[in-house]
Amino acid sequence: MLLDYRDWNIIEAIQKGLPLVTKPYAFIGAQIGLSESEVISRIEQLQKANIIKRFGIVVRHRQLGYRSNGMVVWDIPDDQVTEIGKKIKNFEFVTLCYRRPRKLPDWRYNLFCMIHGQDRENVKEKVALIIEQCRFQHLHYEILFSRRCFKQCGAMYIQRNMVALDAVNG
Amino acid sequence: MDKLDRQIINRLQSGFPICERPFKMVATWLNITEQTLLQRLEKLLEEGILSRFAPLYHAEKLGGGLTLAALAVPEHDFERVTNIVNSFPEIAHNYAREHDLNMWFVIATEKPERINEIIKEIEKQTALTVYNMPKQTEYYIGLYFEV
Q1: How far apart are CA A86 and CA A25, in angstroms?
Q2: Is the previous residue joined to A105 through a cis bond, with omega within 30 degrees of 0?
Q3: Does the interface predicted TM-score (ipTM) exceed 0.85?
Q4: Measuring CA to CA, which residue among B93, B79, B11 is closest to residue B44?
Q5: Beta-carbon pairs below 8 A across chains A and B
Q6: A19: which residues sit within 8 A by CB, 6+ positions away?
Q7: Contact between residue B11 and residue B4 where contact means Cβ atoms under 8 Å apart
Q8: Is-catalytic flag, B99?
């Protein structure tokens, strides 16, 4: 899908958040000189093309009691990554699941997932549940807990071609 | 937060309708009025429980570059390295984590080729090796938090 300047205007207009008014798409349209129906159909197209991956509220997970986040990294034989990645993503508490390159010899892990919990113990319990249910006892893994977040946690911005990211997107 | 707040949060994390009166539609699902829903959302935003109503974009499809990178930073040098890394506006977020690789950050750029320039620049300024781990396959991105 090729984006034109009107798509970019929409992307910029909604990146800070949809206005809390009864007709938000008409409101946005009025700001950028588009009709309500054009805003709606363009957002639908952006979603269909998977340029907008998800549209909804963004929560501050810490405020909701999810105080600990663990990046769980697994060393998985290359020919099994897809199969195992698909198993891991099915756990409802897994928020992200990506394959990434190993950096041998220093870094052996090739599957990354993010798990949030009330505290570290809770994250560990969730990892243990994955291992038990999927019989992953033979797989080597580590949990990297976050200590501090230095920058722009949850903040995101878009310029032309700039990317909006979520706080836990890694 | 009461039960209704929780229902709103759980319901709206999984998606938001694209139609003329989206809040009215969501309100119907929750069996409340549109006005109540808007008031609740305003309150949740004010209290900082919600950060905003927004889409999550597919970086690469917007023509940008995106990667996750890590550094092994000596403890005594942490502040200096943090300042160098965070000085680039393309660093979207940066976490300290407990591991030999103890600093993890996301680089998001307008043009894909800029990723390598930033990595080289960080290596030059910090005298450390940047481990660059762009995603190869995405199995899932959910970001759903049940409350």
Answers
A1: 36
A2: yes
A3: no
A4: B11
A5: 261
A6: A27, A28
A7: no
A8: no
Q: Is residue B86 within 8 Å of residue B79, measured between CB atoms?
A: no
Q: CB B100 to CB A49 under 8 A?
A: no
Q: Which two tokens stand for residue A148?
A: 């501090």
- Taking only the tens place, the pLDDT of each residue in A31-80 is 999 999 999 999 999 999 888 877 888 777 777 888 888 999 999 999 99
DSSP state of A22: S
- pLDDT tens profile B72-131: 999 999 999 999 999 998 898 899 999 999 999 999 888 889 999 999 999 999 999 999
* Cα–Cα distance, B136 to B127 (Å, whole number): 27
Q: How far apart are the first and last CA of chain A?
A: 25
Let me know the angle formed at the C-alpha of B70 by B64 and B74, rounded to the nearest 5 degrees.
145
Instruction: For chain A, positions 111-150, list CB contacts with chain B under 8 A.
Output: 112-113, 116, 142, 144-150
pTM exceeds 0.80, yes or no: no
Strand partners, A68: A117
